[in-house]
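This entry is listed below:
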Amino acid sequence: MEWTDEAIVLSVKPHGETAAVVELFTRSHGRHSGLVHGGRSRKSRPVLQIGNHVDATWKARLSEHLGHMSLELRRGYAASAMDDPPALAALSSLCALSRLLPERDPHPALYEVTLFVLSFLDDPTVWPALYVRWEVALLQELGFGLDLSACAATGANDQLIYVSPKSGRAVSASAGEPYRDRLLPLPAFLTKARQAVVTEEDVRNGLKLTGHFLESRILAARGEQLPEVRGRILGLARLLN
């Protein structure tokens, strides 16, 4: 068994004295792991950083085996984010949450979105909103997509400012007013009526929205919590102008 694919490094664990078990999010083979000989060497360490874009070749005698991997660096996103704590927190959270995907189940659309977000981590006026949209896409891929296209009560598609924490459907300003304390804020950049400027409050509300559904629909059943590093995205520095 053998394949070659491009991928994003999700995690790296030491194995023995010199090797490492590397987990990747590949374009065509989904979340996939393999053993990298010499993965703890000085030469390999810069390549085996979470968030890096790599070319991977995987080989194994049988498909169910762990197999061996060889990796070549395409772009080192980890190094470029190292001096920017909020961007590094976003990169780390993205990689941690990608591990919720079923193993070896391809998600090419989400893979493309993931690369897109990583490519903008050097622009703090852009990536925070992109990161929130990535979490919305992740929920969709995991089978828990949000319906933000029309009001759950009226069917109208204007003035959508809330989301029901139970159904994951948008709610209009008028229909949601009596229940506003029990609804989640819906930032405009997640709707068709996208505003020109995304504020820090918009991003915070977006993270609250996606975080609620990640926790209630996915993580709770696994007895897990959101990655601690995710909470640092907006707590480390002012991100938006």
